[in-house]
């Protein structure tokens, strides 16, 4: 990826890094002022950012916005998409392309009203302190429209970060058009070919007035993503949270692809009910390892995959028959259970009863003595998520807690639920990110295994499962 930093080139507006909390400085005006003038001393909690999407239809704006919100939620940062199309649909649910022609005054009026309603709700959302980052998902394709949004946000001390998705890769545009015609609420119940043609005409109407972000707007904070993943132009990034969003966007691509997830085959520790360790896979785990290539072929066809495992024996042994390039990641090792490593849940409850209860009370935040919490795991998995976003078709063979965290990222599972999700052994999961949601398929190998799922409050030994599948 080629990265151009417009600030770095002229050196007048350096990208600022996050400064530690200014505990001795009174909050309020000083902090607000300093954000505007020097970009330092900003506390994440004090920041409000409106990320304004810019671009023609079918340039992946909704996908980018949805993904970024999922990522921020995963990092415990409250964020929300305000989609102007959704507001417009209350008055005009199924418009034809003419509605988007700028010489159609009624269409213009209704579209402006939808944008105003979305911005008003967004400002209210910030005022009620419901979140830190809002994504205004619309074309915002003219300079006038962008200036209006910026001035409106300024009135309420909301920072703006414009994100333009420019794309001339015909294959990418086509695949977006195909997806929109089958999934957009605008075309529900319509013939897919008629829908695709109408959508192309809609794009043409937008093209007539579209203005890319250029030098006239050099006072704006913006990122231009050119053919998402190929080139990035960054201008006037002002603080830590903005740079965090930009860093994520820089790693994205929107080519169609899937991600496959599997736990290792049943291990000898699974059989004895012990947690952690570096045990070999059991005989049934070995059967799963041998079955996995067939299961993957059924699901992925001829697609070439790359296999990621942890550095622990049970994942490497499970993946060893897969006919693809393999990469071992320390970051994919199982959650570190510290002093409890190698113990059964029964032993932990007996030896550390208070800790056992504390973990049940708040499993996401509980950190094993000398080990990790789920929250710690999410932090160590961030580079994995970035690399996953940059990659195409990947199969990850890993461990229960790690898989829960990766799955939670793709499926937007809240923190209070993710550590309690059941992710069975001997099951291949396929995730396919789409514009509006991630599709999921589960393929049980039908090879028996114990269930390592532990319900809240239970210290029972792992139970035998008939099918080892779901
Ligand atoms: C829409 O009405 O679908 C979106 C309006 C826009 O972003 O221009």
From TrEMBL:
Which residues belong to any copy of the 6-phosphofructo-2-kinase domain?
43-256
User: Taxonomically, which superkingdom?
Assistant: Eukaryota
One GO molecular function term of this record is: 6-phosphofructo-2-kinase activity
What keywords are assigned to this protein? ATP-binding, Hydrolase, Nucleotide-binding
| GO biological process annotation, one example | fructose metabolic process
Q: Which Pfam families match?
A: 6PF2K (PF01591), His_Phos_1 (PF00300)
In what ranges is there compositional bias, type Basic and acidic residues?
Answer: 453-470
**Which GO terms of the cellular component aspect does the record hold?**
cytosol
- Give its E.C. classification number: 3.1.3.46
User: Has UniProt tagged this entry with the keyword Protein transport?
Assistant: no
- Where does the sequence pass through the membrane? none
Q: Where does substrate bind?
A: 263-270, 314
**Per the record, which residues fall in region Disordered?**
1-26, 447-470
List compositional bias (Polar residues) regions by residue number.
1-10
Q: Which PROSITE patterns match?
A: PG_MUTASE
Family indicated by similarity: In the C-terminal section; belongs to the phosphoglycerate mutase family.
* Protein's recorded name: fructose-2,6-bisphosphate 2-phosphatase
């Amino acid at each position: 990826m080629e990265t151009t930093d417009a600030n770095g080139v002229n050196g007048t507006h350096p990208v600022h890094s996050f400064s530690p909390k200014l505990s001795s400085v009174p909050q309020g005006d000083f902090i607000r002022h300093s954000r505007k003038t020097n970009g330092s001393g900003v506390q994440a909690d004090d920041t409000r950012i409106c990320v304004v999407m810019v671009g023609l239809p079918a340039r992946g704006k909704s996908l980018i916005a949805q993904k970024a919100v999922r990522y921020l939620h995963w990092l415990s940062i409250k964020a929300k998409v305000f989609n102007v199309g959704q507001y417009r649909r209350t008055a005009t649910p199924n418009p034809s392309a003419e509605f988007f022609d700028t010489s159609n005054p009624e269409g213009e009026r209704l579209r402006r009203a939808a944008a105003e309603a979305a911005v008003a709700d967004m400002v209210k959302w910030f005022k009620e302190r419901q979140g830190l980052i809002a994504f205004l998902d619309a074309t915002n394709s003219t300079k006038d429209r962008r200036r209006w949004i910026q001035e409106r946000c300024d009135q309420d001390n909301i920072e703006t970060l414009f994100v333009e998705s420019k794309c001339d890769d015909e294959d990418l545009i086509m695949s977006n058009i195909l997806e929109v015609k089958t999934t957009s609420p605008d075309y529900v119940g319509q013939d897919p070919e008629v829908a695709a043609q109408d959508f192309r005409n809609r794009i043409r109407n937008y093209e007539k007035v579209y203005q890319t972000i250029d030098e006239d707007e050099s006072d704006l904070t913006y990122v231009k993503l050119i053919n998402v993943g190929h080139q990035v132009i960054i201008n006037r990034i002002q603080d830590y949270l903005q740079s965090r969003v930009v860093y994520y966007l820089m790693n994205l691509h929107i080519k169609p692809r899937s991600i496959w997830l599997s736990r290792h085959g049943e291990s000898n520790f699974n059989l004895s009910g012990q947690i952690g360790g570096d045990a070999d896979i059991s005989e049934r785990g070995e059967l799963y390892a041998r079955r996995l290539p067939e299961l993957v072929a059924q699901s992925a066809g001829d697609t070439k995959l790359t296999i990621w495992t942890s550095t622990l024996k049970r994942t490497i042994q499970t993946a060893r028959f897969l006919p693809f390039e393999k990469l071992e990641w320390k970051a994919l090792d199982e959650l570190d259970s510290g002093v409890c490593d190698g113990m059964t849940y029964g032993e932990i409850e007996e030896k550390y009863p208070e800790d056992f209860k504390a973990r049940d009370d708040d499993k996401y935040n509980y950190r094993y003595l000398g080990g990790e919490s789920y929250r710690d795991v999410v932090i160590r998995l961030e580079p994995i998520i970035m690399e996953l976003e940059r990659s195409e078709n990947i199969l990850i063979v890993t461990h229960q807690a790690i898989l829960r965290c990766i799955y939670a990222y793709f499926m937007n599972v809240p923190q209070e639920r993710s550590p309690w999700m059941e992710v069975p052994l001997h099951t291949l999961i396929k995730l396919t990110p789409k514009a509006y949601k991630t599709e999921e398929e589960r393929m049980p190998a039908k090879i028996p295994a114990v269930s390592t799922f532990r319900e809240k409050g239970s210290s029972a030994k792992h139970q035998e499962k008939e099918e080892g599948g779901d």
